[in-house]
Amino acid sequence: MNFKNNILIFFCSIFWVVNANPNLAPMVFGDAFIEEEIKIRLESMSCLVKPIIDVDVLDQVKRFVFVDKASSRKILSRRELYFPLIDKLLLENNLPTELKFLTAIESAINPGVKSYAGAAGLWQFMPSTAKLRGLRVDDKVDERLDPVKSTLAAIDYLKSLYGLFGDWALVFAAYNCGENKILDLIEKNGTRDFWTLRKDLPRQTQLFVPAFIGVSYLMHFYGEHELIPSLEDINIEPLTYARIFKEIDFKKMYKSTGLDKDVFETYNPAFKKNSIPARENGLYVNLPDSLMVLFVDYYLNELDEKKSNISTDSTMVDEEVRIDIITFNRPYQFLPEDIEEFKAQELDHVFLQDASIHTVPQSISERVKDYVYHIVSTRETLSNIVDQYNGLTKANLMDWNGLGENKILRPGTVLIIKK
After folding, report:
1. Which of 95, 259, 389, 408 is spaced 20 to 30 Å from 269 by Cα?
2. How many independent structural domains does the chain possess?
3. Alpha carbon distance 317, 315 (integer Å)
4. Whole domain around residue 158: which residue ranges?
């Protein structure tokens, strides 16, 4: 009777845990199987940091795809709005676009968020660090909350760190706990391997690199875990931004343009007062493309009015009132003659060695002359593939592709199938 009672208590306790916290649910009986699937995907995944598949890395993956699904769905919806902007700035500065995943860890891609410690914005700069990176933080503007200016500051910092360490895992660790700490550990241990040094790092920094691997996994394989945001959560229009130099009074602008105050403030949390102050180096306004048209028309009309009342040299006035408008509703759609040049630019940099995979490979085929090319999808086996083609045998498939009997097929592998 005691044995039966113990079994009953065990299953009841599982039921209670799962129902008490549904976010922890789906890994009770299928842990071993799910973990093996995750490991296979991690091994095939392109990542700036080569994954060392240990407990911390697996825990961070599970955090993003199982434990905190609500936050992960918000991250996936916000990326549609902010990632095109960040991609543009990273590419213009010859940095890998995967660096944008840091914003998912730091702020859940929310430019208006502030931490209890005083860090703020997409990249979570502290006030002192922000000022060192040229960001203005005063009673009128907090440029840590501006997606464009804060990203440019992060790019400057990440470039400096990469120049210092030449390794992205060390860069991320330094971003979290400071470069001096990492330099001291390198000197003390005589190695530049993050995975060797991490035992001496603060626990938060030990988990920061695994968190980057975890969020990279989320971006690659969210569909495998049914983490598709609802259509209402997806922003159709990526952000555009404009650099302006003259003061804008919000009350007057809202009245003239019909722009909604709450909408404008959502996209522009950097401004603390009821106006955008005039600045010699300019400030950035961020809006979806359709709304930016209204703002730019208003701004240029305001400049025309002010210019007509100024009697100074017209060349000087034109320089002072210049405006740069950048739109990327369709970012980086290169003409054919530009494609080779862009590829060559990427290959100049050793830290862009690994191509980025942004979607899970799907099972597709393409007929080319006397062959069919088959791209292996997740969980496909040789037997599965043979069943999809009339007259195909497993022996043929193995012979044409030089496969051994125990060959493990990785997602994305291209197989040749003769007609």
Report:
1. 95
2. 4
3. 5
4. 55-232
Same domain for 65 and 99? yes
193 and 134, same domain (yes or no):
yes
User: Residue 282 is which amino acid?
Assistant: G
Distance CA 166, CA 186 (A): 13
pLDDT tens string 84-96: 999 999 999 999 9
49 contacts 224 by C-beta, under 8 angstroms: no
- Is position 335 within any domain? no
Query: Does residue 356 sit within a domain?
Result: no
Partnered with residue 125 across adjacent β-strands are 120
Q: Is residue 331 part of a domain?
A: no
CA atoms of 350 and 346, how far apart (whole Å): 9
> For the residues of 157-208, what is the DSSP string, one character each?
HHHHHHHHHS-HHHHHHHHHH-HHHHHHHHHHHT---HHHHGGGS-HHHHHH
Residue 163 placed within a domain: yes
* CATH of residue 69: 1.10.530.10
Beta pairing, strands 371-375 & 414-418: antiparallel
| Same-domain pairing of 165 and 202 | yes
For the entire predicted model, the pTM comes to 0.69
Contact (Cβ atoms closer than 8 angstroms) between residue 48 and residue 168: yes
Quote the CA–CA distance of 173 and 151 in Å, as a whole number.
18
- Alpha helices (H) along 101-178: 102-107, 127-132, 147-165, 168-177
Judge whether residue 342 has pLDDT over 70: no
**Do 110 and 137 sit in the same domain of this protein?**
yes
Quote the tokens at residue 249: 């009074």
Q: Are 73 and 233 in contact (CB under 8 A)?
A: yes
For residue range 194-238, what is the model confidence (pLDDT) as tens digits?
Answer: 999 999 999 999 999 999 999 999 999 999 998 988 666 666 677
CATH number at residue 375: 3.10.350
Same domain, 198 and 314: no
Phi/psi of residue 86, nearest 5 degrees: -65, -40
Answer whether residue 376 shows pLDDT above 60. Answer: yes
Q: What is the DSSP string of 291-328?
A: HHHHHHHHHHHHHHHHHHT--S-HHHHHHHT--EEE--
Domain match, 190 and 253 both: no
Domain's final residue, options 204, 232, 260 = 232
Confirm if 173 and 196 have CB atoms less than 8 A apart: no
* φ, ψ (nearest 5 deg) of residue 94: 60, 40
Backbone angles phi, psi at 373, to 5 degrees: -95, 125
Q: Taking each helix axis from N to C terminus, what angle separates 69-92 and 203-221, rounded to the nearest 10 degrees? A: 90
